[in-house]
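Project standup — Tuesday

K.O.: blocked on the structure for the chain from last sprint. Re-posting the sequence here as requested.
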Amino acid sequence: MLSAVEVKPSRSFISWRILFIFVGKRNSMNLSEIPSKEIMPGYHGKLIHAENMSIAFWEVEKDAEVPEHSHKNEQIMQVLQGNFEFTVNGETQVYEPNDIVIIPPHATHSGKALTECKLMDVFSPVRSEYK
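H.V.: unblocked you, prediction finished:
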């Protein structure tokens, strides 16, 4: 059975300025200039898609829930702010700022914001449903 892997970095390493380098070409953007989309109730995301991956910066309302689901994408979630209850393959834990969870492809998972939260998700391959 697949399981999540937790990593607790000693300090936050995420920059709010994002730089993508493509073959022979550089594209950069400022997160504050990317429009937010409400993908599901209470989940407001700024979504960036590269050739082989997607990244989402979420502002999540307190008590907003993501129903149980799975997808082909490998996913890495980092809690940037707040407390987020997250279940992967039936195991539930509460995550705090700087906690990182690795969700394997096809693993069932769900979540609930216990407070207002800021989260970052990275998906590979591209999360095409978010385009």
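K.O.: great, moving the ticket to review. The radius of gyration is 14 Å. The chain is about 0% helix and 55% strand.
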